[in-house]
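Entry:
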Amino acid sequence: MKNFDFTLNEEFPMCDKELYEKMQGHFLMPEEETFFDTMIYKELNEFAPSFDVIMLEDDNVDSIYIVRCYYAEYKIGCGKEGYRDSSEYALSLKDALDVDMFKFLNKHISLLEWLRSINYSGLNYDRWEE
């Protein structure tokens, strides 16, 4: 477990701290640990006034995109024709990972379950779009 100072950012959602602490020792794969470590670091330290593109729709076969806004807000959507105007907005990583992906994938699966199913492939933590 990384030693994060959760008091660095007064806007940091405590539900994300609780989720991170709960996940410790229960990561299913190294990529999952990298994902959580990176996203918590970003939420604490990297303000994204416009957006921080974590995944583009071109980075996966389901055309899902994930964008982080400000510190800990997320927009999840699908770039497929007919889905472009429907996205989900979450105010924390926990809420984002709980999003039901049914309207994008036609099956009830959370974003967390979907990320696990693709082994967290297609994520890019260093691609900023301001």
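Residues 30-45 form the longest helix (16 residues).
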